[in-house]
Amino acid sequence: MTSKEDFITDHLMEEIMDYNKEFVDTEQYAPFITSKFPDKRMVVLTCMDTRLVELLPRAMNLKNGDVKIIKSAGAIVSHPFGSIMRSILVAIFELQATEIAIVGHYECGMASMNPSLLIEKAIKQGIDPKTIELMKTCGIDLHKWLSGFDSVEESVLSSVKMVRQHPLLPKQIAVHGLIIHPHTGELNWIHNGYPEVQQHVDEHSN
Questions:
Q1: Which residues of the chain have pLDDT under 50?
Q2: What is the CATH topology of the domain spanning 33-111+152-206?
Q3: Domain with CATH 3.40.1050.10 in the chain
Q4: Is residue 182 classed as helix, strand or coil in its secondary structure?
Q5: Radius of gyration of the chain (CA)
Q6: Would you say the pTM of this structure is higher than 0.85?
Q7: I want to staple 43 with a disulfide (CB 3.0 to 4.6 A). Which of 82, 85, 97, 206 is the partner?
Q8: Any residues with CB less than 8 A from the CB of 163 and at least 6 apart, and which?
C-alpha cells in the first residue's frame, strides 16, 4: 500500500531548471559545441550505471563530440529489431560511425536479476496486480523480459554476436566487446572485431 509520503519527491527537476538558466545565460555550453558526427567515428553501447557516467569516457580517452554513446541496463542488445539496434544502425548509416564497441562492466546490477522481486517492487509502488496478470494473458513473458544475465562476459559476447550477425550491418563495420571495471576504469577487450573485418576484406579483394 502506497502512502502520501511515497509520492513526495525532492523536486530535483526544479533545481536542474534553475541551474540550467544560469548555465545558458553565462554561456557555459561553449566548450561543448561540436557537430552531430562523431570525430572518432565510433558508437559505444554501455550500461546506464552511475559509476560510468564520467569514468567510461575518461577511461576510453573520449571527449564531447568523439563518439555516439547509447546506454541501457546491462549494455544488452536483447532484440535484433529493438531500439538499441536501430540506434546503432542510425549511427552507422546517418552519422558515419565505422566501429561499434559494446562495453559491459563488472558488478553490474543486471547480473542475476530477479524478475519476480522486480515485479513485487512494481506492485508495491502502485502497479495493479491485475495489470501484471493481463500482460501475461496477452502473451508477454515478463520474467524473460526482465531477466538479466549470469555472466557479463557471456552477455557482452551475446550482444556482439547479435549485432555482428544483423542483416543490415555492413560487414566492414568492426564490432568489439569490452568489459570495464567500475572502480579503476580498466578495460578488458574480450572480442576483437578487426579480424572479422579483415577476413571480409580479404575475401572480396580477389
A1: none
A2: Beta-carbonic Anhydrase; Chain A (3.40.1050)
A3: 33-111+152-206
A4: coil
A5: 20
A6: yes
A7: 97
A8: 77, 85, 88, 100, 102, 169, 175
